[in-house]
What does this fold into?
Amino acid sequence: MISEEEARNRILEAVSPTPERTVPLSGALGCFSARSVVAGLSLPAFDNSAMDGYAIVASSSKKGARLQVIGEQPAGVDRQLRISPGDAVRIFTGAPIPAGADAVVMQEDATREGGEIVVNVDVHPGEFIRRRGCDLAEGQKILGRGERIRTTTIALLASQGFADVTVGGQVNAAIVSTGDEVVTPGSKLDQGQIYDSNSALLQALVQHCGASVKSAEHCPDHRERLIQAIQRGIKSHILVITGGVSVGEHDLVQAVLRALGAKIDIWRVAIKPGKPFLFGEASGCAVFGLPGNPVSAFVTFLQFVHPAILKMMGANNLNLPKASARLTADLANEGDRPHYVRGRIENGTFVPVGRQESHALFGLSQSNALLRIAVGESLRAGEIVDVQTWD
It folds into this structure.
């Protein structure tokens, strides 16, 4: 049995990024940039009005001043207007500032009288003008290599005229759940059987990473059928098997993998829940064997499969998000493995939720964070702790 840190390091050394690709900007959401990107345009690209109103010269526009309206500048093509002291140009939000103007008076603060306006407030230089480059300077870094492309990142890239973007490669996964006691949802449930929740859980976790599920199937504890399922699964980048990885007479996964020529690099990790964890390689496919209990499968996926997928997709940060919160209950770990406690972070507090057992799916469903408690560690209510989040 090895430490979780050693297991994670071995896994990340074993997997490699998949080939990068160029995708339309509309298809880049959730991908990781394969390049650092700098701005080719300043934002704004030109001085423009922040309001509907009148472009003016501030020094000639004190309260009560009467100004001659000499033209109009809507948003769009610059009409190359120029004003002098005593002039005003009708202007609209986003429109280029006419040459000579150094302020905009809002239309609510001016009274239009035919071809003139009367200024009803004192106006100062720079008011309601968005200066060129005040948001973003040309040459400024806007996206780092390995950064996830978010909805707002797409808007920023579009503002620079990008129609497509180079991102990390695609990762596809195959999922195999095992066990004679497991039944596909929608089927008849006999006494002693349970519905297959792990397949649904793992498909959602894979998709949440940004990878795709190429196939998902259930296999009973039958050697020949498991061989066939694994042979199909290793055609993907990763294969995630849940159940059958322990040491019982019906736990066939490890023996079948070895029979197929797989190299098993990790077997059993010091983590609770989730000790019977397996990692290996078969025909270029990264193979993960997760425990059959849903909470164990969930925790081991987050700690080991999640960072591997992110590395393969080209991410520069492989860690789960973290948050600090105030603990609401005393907690201690008297076991021989680090314990990941499931709970809910809300309004700055972390509350352990439900039964802290590997089968307790309802409690997991109500949780949004994990608190790692080291071996021999005791925590008191009121302490500030760091927790991992996933939603």
About this structure: The mean pLDDT is 95.
